[in-house]
Structure to design on (857 residues):
C-alpha cells in the first residue's frame, strides 16, 4: 500500500511528527505553575514513553516503577511494527529532520564524512549505540546512573529548560518591547512565553551538548540516531524481527539502489541487505521508488526482507558489559584515595530518598527544574561526583529573595517521571524536611553586630515559626537612640528546610542563616533553643554599636 | 547721590538679590503648610458587618463615599496586601471580598483605570492566586480593573525629601503621581515580629523596589519615611480578621481573630493609631506611627480625631 486515503505515507509521517512535536512543546509549556497547586497531568508523558530511562531507573533501584507503563507499550509496539518511534514520535528526531531541511544546501557540502565512509568503519560506528546501551544498563545495575547523559529526551529537555526557554523568553520579550500592539503582547506573554526567564547554572553546558547533536546532523543525516543514540539501539533490538515487513521484489530493481543511498537511517548494509532494526519506518523509499515496487505489509511476500541481527561480536558485547560493570567500581575506588566528603549544602528536593537511590532514580530530565516556580532547583555540578551531574539540588542563595522552596508547592513531585522526587501532598512534604537551618553567629546581624533584623523570622512559613526570638534587649545606637535587638534561634523540630530565610537574609555574600543537609549538620552549632531556655549560652555584650 | 549713581546702585543691589542663593525655600514652606495639621479634625470611620462587600460602602459613607476620593477619569491604584502564599481565612493578606468591593466602588466613581498590585514576598503567582484577590478582581468582569504583576523594570529611584534615615529609594512607577491620580492603601491589620504590627504605613513596602531588607535595620523610621513619598488619598484598614501572633505570614487559624471591622480615613497616621487599639495596644507603642506623626504625616492622638462609627 503506497498511499493511505490518496495521501502518500511520508505525508502522514510528517504530519504525525509535527503533531507530536507540538504536543511535546505544549506539554513543555504547561510544565509551569499556573495558579493551581495541582498540575493538569501528563507533563512528563514523553519521559514515561522512554523505555531506556525506564529500564535504567528500574535496574538501578531494582524496583518496578508503574508510572512507566507507556514505555512498555512502546516496547510492545516496536516489537510488532519495528522502530517506528524514531521516525514518527521522537521529538528530537523531528527537530533533527527539520534542521536538516533548513540546512540542506549547507549539509550537502559538510556531510562528506558520512558519504565517503568505508563500509567497515560505518559498521563499527553502528556499534556505538549498542555499546552505549550495554554500558549504561550494566552500570545502572551496579548503581552508577549514566542514562541521563545519553538519553535523547533528557538531552533535549535539559537543553530547552536551561537554555532554550530562557533564550526564547529574553529574545521575544525584547522584541515585544519595541514591536507589537497590546493584544499581540498579552497573547504572546500569556500563551507562548514562560512566566519569567529562569536562570540556571551550567546552561551553556546543556546548550553545547544539545547543539552538538544538531551540528552532527550536518556531518551525516540523523547522525545522532544512527551512531550514538542508545534509546535507538534499544528499539532496534526490540524491533529486529517485526511483523511489519518491507517488500521489494529484487528482480525488478537490481540496478537502482536509490533506496539504499537515500535512506536517512542507513537501513541497508553495504551489500544492499535491508536491516529492519535500522529502519525507522519513514516510508520515504515507498514514496520515491522510481518503479513504485517498494511496500510495507504484515504478510511476507516473495522477496521480503529477512531479519539481519545486529552484528556485534561477542568480544565487543562482553567488553561493553565488563566496562559497565567496572565503571561503578572504579568511581567507588576513587574514594579510597580521596574520601568523599558530603557537601553539607547539597540539598535534594523534598521527599527525595537517600543520595544513592535518588541518583539512581533520577534521569536528569530537568522537568522538576522547569516546573519549580522560584527557580531554587538547579542542576548540580560535581557536588556528588561525576554521577551527580545535572541532578537537581536546591540553591537558596542563588538569587536574593527569589530562590527558595515554596512552603505549599508540590509541583516537582508531580512532574518527576521516575518518582525520584515522590508525589507528596502538602502535609507529607512538611513531614520530609529538605534540611535544617542553622545560624552563623559570626554573620547574623543581631548576633554578630547587634543590628535589628530578624528578616528570617518574618519570612519563616511554618505557622508556629521555626525561628524563635530567644532574647530581646536594647542597645544605644550611634545617634543615641535606643535600638531593640531581637536574637533569633532555630527550633529544629519545626524547620522544614525551605531556605526562604537563607534566600532573604539581607547580608551581602553568604547568609547569616544556612540550610544544611539532614545528614551533615554543622560542626560548631549555634546555641540550641533548649540550652537557652535553661539559661545557657553567653550573655549579650552591650558594648556593640547599633546601625 | 546723583541720579546716575542711584541707578548704578539700584542695578547692583537688585542683581545681587537676584543672583544670591535664597535662604528661604518658599516651596518647602508651602509643602510644610500642606503637611501641617489641618484646622479641621481628621475624620476616621469604623464599621462592622459580616457582609464584607457591603461593609466597604458602609465604612466610606461618613467620609463622603468613594466619590470624595476618586474623580471621574482618575487612574487609581488599589494597594492591598498580597504578600503571602496564604488563603483568605489565614489573615495574612487583605480579604479578597474587601478588595473586590473597593475596586467596584472606584469603578462606580468613574475611575478610568484601577490597578491592583503588591510586591509579594512569596512567589507572586502563588500569592495572587491563593489569596483569592486575582480571581476577585477578575470576577468584576470590568476591563478597567486589572490585577497586575509588578514589572521589575518599572521601579524608579525617588528622592525622599525630609528623610533622615533614607535619602532615596526605589518606588514603583505606577504608584507615583504622573501615572496614578488616586492611591488607595488597603492593608490588612496583623502582627509583625519586628515592627510589632503591620498596618497602613508598613503596607507601603509593597510598592518599593531594591533591597527591602535594608528597611529592617531602622524599621520604624524608615517605614515612616517611605510614606513621605507615597501619599494615599484614602486608607482602608482591613480588620475583618486580624492576625494576633506569628505574623506577618501567619498560617495558623488559632492566631486569627475575626472582627468583621473596616477602618477608613484620609489620615494614614490616625488610621494606624486606631487599628493599633484593636490589638489592645496604645498608638504610641508603634514606632512607625510615632515617627510618622512627628514627620507631620497625620494625627496620632485619637482624642484629636473625629471617630465616626458607621
Amino acid at each position: 500500500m503506497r498511499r493511505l486515503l490518496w495521501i502518500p505515507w511520508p505525508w502522514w509521517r510528517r504530519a504525525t511528527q509535527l503533531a507530536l512535536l507540538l504536543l511535546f512543546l505544549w506539554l513543555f509549556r504547561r510544565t509551569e505553575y499556573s495558579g493551581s497547586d495541582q498540575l493538569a497531568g501528563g507533563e512528563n508523558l514523553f519521559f514515561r514513553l522512554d523505555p531506556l530511562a525506564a529500564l535504567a531507573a528500574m535496574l538501578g533501584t531494582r524496583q518496578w516503577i508503574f508510572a512507566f507503563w507507556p514505555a512498555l507499550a512502546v516496547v510492545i509496539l516496536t516489537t510488532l511494527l519495528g522502530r517506528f518511534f524514531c521516525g514518527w514520535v521522537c521529538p528530537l528526531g523531528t527537530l533533527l529532520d527539520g534542521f536538516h531541511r533548513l540546512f540542506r544546501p549547507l549539509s550537502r557540502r559538510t556531510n562528506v564524512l558520512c558519504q565517503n565512509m568505508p563500509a567497515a568503519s560505518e559498521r563499527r560506528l553502528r556499534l556505538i549505540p549498542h555499546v552505549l546501551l550495554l554500558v549504561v544498563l550494566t552500570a545502572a545495575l551496579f548503581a552508577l546512573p549514566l542514562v541521563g547523559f545519553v538519553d535523547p529526551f533528557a538531552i533535549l529537555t535539559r537543553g530547552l529548560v536551561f537554555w532554550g526557554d530562557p533564550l526564547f523568553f529574553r529574545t521575544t520579550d525584547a522584541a515585544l518591547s519595541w514591536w507589537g500592539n497590546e493584544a499581540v503582547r498579552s497573547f504572546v506573554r500569556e500563551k507562548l512565553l514562560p512566566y519569567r526567564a529562569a536562570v540556571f547554572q551550567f546552561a551553556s553546558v546543556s546548550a553545547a551538548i544539545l547543539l552538538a547533536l544538531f551540528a552532527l546532523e550536518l556531518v551525516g543525516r540523523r547522525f545522532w540516531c544512527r551512531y550514538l543514540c542508545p534509546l535507538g539501539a534499544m528499539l532496534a533490538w526490540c524491533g529486529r524481527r517485526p511483523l511489519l515487513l518491507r517488500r521489494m521484489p529484487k528482480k525488478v530493481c537490481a540496478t537502482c539502489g536509490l533506496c539504499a543511498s537515500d535512506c536517512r537511517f542507513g537501513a541497508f548494509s553495504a551489500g544492499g541487505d535491508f536491516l529492519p532494526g535500522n529502519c525507522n519506518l519513514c516510508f520515504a523509499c515507498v514514496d520515491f521508488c522510481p518503479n513504485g515496487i517498494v511496500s510495507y505489509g504484515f504478510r511476507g511476500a516473495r522477496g521480503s526482507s529477512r531479519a539481519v541481527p545486529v552484528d556485534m561480536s561477542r568480544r565487543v558485547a562482553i567488553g561493553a558489559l565488563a566496562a559497565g560493570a567496572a565503571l561503578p567500581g572504579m568511581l567507588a575506588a576513587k574514594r579510597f584515595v580521596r574520601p568523599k566528603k558530603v557537601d553539607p549544602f547539597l540539598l535534594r528536593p523534598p521527599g527525595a530518598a537517600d543520595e544513592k537511590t535518588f541518583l539512581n532514580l533520577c534521569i536528569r530530565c530537568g522537568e522538576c527544574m522547569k516546573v519549580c516556580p522560584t527557580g531554587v532547583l538547579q542542576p548540580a555540578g560535581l557536588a556528588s561526583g561525576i554521577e551527580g551531574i545535572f541532578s537537581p539540588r536546591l540553591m537558596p542563595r542563588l538569587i536574593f529573595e527569589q530562590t527558595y522552596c515554596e512552603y505549599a508547592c508540590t509541583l516537582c513531585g508531580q512532574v518527576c517521571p521516575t518518582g525520584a522526587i515522590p508525589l507528596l501532598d502538602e502535609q507529607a512534604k512538611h513531614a520530609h524536611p529538605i534540611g535544617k537551618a542553622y545560624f552563623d553567629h559570626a554573620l547574623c546581624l543581631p548576633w554578630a553586630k547587634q543590628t535589628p533584623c530578624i528578616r528570617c523570622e518574618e519570612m519563616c512559613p511554618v505557622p508556629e515559626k521555626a525561628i524563635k526570638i530567644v532574647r530581646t534587649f536594647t542597645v544605644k545606637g550611634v545617634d543615641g537612640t535606643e535600638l531593640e535587638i531581637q536574637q533569633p534561634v532555630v527550633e529544629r523540630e519545626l524547620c522544614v528546610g525551605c531556605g526562604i530565610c537563607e534566600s532573604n537574609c539581607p547580608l551581602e555574600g553568604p547568609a547569616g542563616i544556612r540550610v544544611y543537609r539532614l545528614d551533615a549538620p554543622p560542626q560548631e552549632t549555634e546555641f540550641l533553643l533548649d540550652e537557652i531556655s535553661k539559661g545557657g549560652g553567653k550573655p549579650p555584650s552591650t558594648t556593640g554599636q547599633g546601625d | 547721590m546723583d541720579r546716575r549713581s542711584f541707578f548704578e546702585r539700584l542695578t547692583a543691589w537688585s542683581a545681587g538679590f537676584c543672583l544670591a542663593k535664597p535662604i528661604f525655600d518658599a516651596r518647602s514652606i508651602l509643602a510644610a503648610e500642606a503637611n501641617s495639621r489641618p484646622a479641621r479634625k481628621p475624620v476616621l470611620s469604623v464599621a462592622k458587618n459580616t457582609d464584607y462587600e457591603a461593609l466597604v460602602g458602609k465604612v466610606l459613607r461618613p467620609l463622603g463615599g468613594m466619590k470624595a476620593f476618586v474623580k471621574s477619569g482618575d487612574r487609581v491604584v488599589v494597594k492591598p496586601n498580597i504578600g503571602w502564599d496564604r488563603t483568605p481565612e489565614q489573615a495574612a493578606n487583605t480579604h479578597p471580598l474587601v478588595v473586590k468591593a473597593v475596586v467596584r466602588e472606584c469603578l462606580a466613581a468613574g475611575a478610568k483605570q484601577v490597578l491592583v498590585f503588591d510586591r509579594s514576598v512569596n512567589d507572586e503567582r502563588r500569592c495572587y492566586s491563593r489569596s483569592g484577590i486575582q480571581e476577585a478582581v477578575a470576577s468584576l468582569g470590568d476591563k478597567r480593573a486589572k490585577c497586575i504583576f509588578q514589572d521589575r523594570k518599572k521601579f524608579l529611584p525617588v528622592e525622599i525629601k525630609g528623610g533622615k534615615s533614607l535619602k532615596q529609594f526605589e518606588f514603583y512607577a505606577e504608584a507615583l503621581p504622573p501615572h496614578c491620580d488616586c492611591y488607595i492603601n488597603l492593608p490588612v491589620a496583623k502582627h509583625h515580629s519586628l515592627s510589632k504590627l503591620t498596618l497602613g504605613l508598613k503596607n507601603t513596602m509593597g510598592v518599593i523596589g531594591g533591597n527591602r531588607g535594608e528597611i529592617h535595620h531602622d524599621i520604624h523610621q524608615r517605614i515612616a519615611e517611605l510614606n513621605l513619598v507615597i501619599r494615599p488619598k484614602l486608607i482602608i484598614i482591613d480588620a475583618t480578621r486580624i492576625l494576633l501572633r506569628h505574623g506577618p505570614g501567619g498560617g495558623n487559624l488559632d492566631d486569627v481573630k475575626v472582627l468583621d471591622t473596616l477602618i477608613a480615613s484620609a489620615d494614614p497616621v490616625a488610621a494606624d493609631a486606631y487599628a493599633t487599639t484593636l490589638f489592645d495596644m496604645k498608638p504610641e507603642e508603634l514606632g512607625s506611627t510615632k515617627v510618622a506623626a512627628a514627620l507631620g504625616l497625620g494625627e496620632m492622638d485619637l482624642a484629636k480625631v473625629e471617630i465616626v462609627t458607621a
User: Anything to note?
Assistant: Chain A is about 45% helix and 10% strand. Residues 260 and 272 of chain A are 7 Å apart (CA to CA). The first helix of chain A runs from residue 9 to 30.
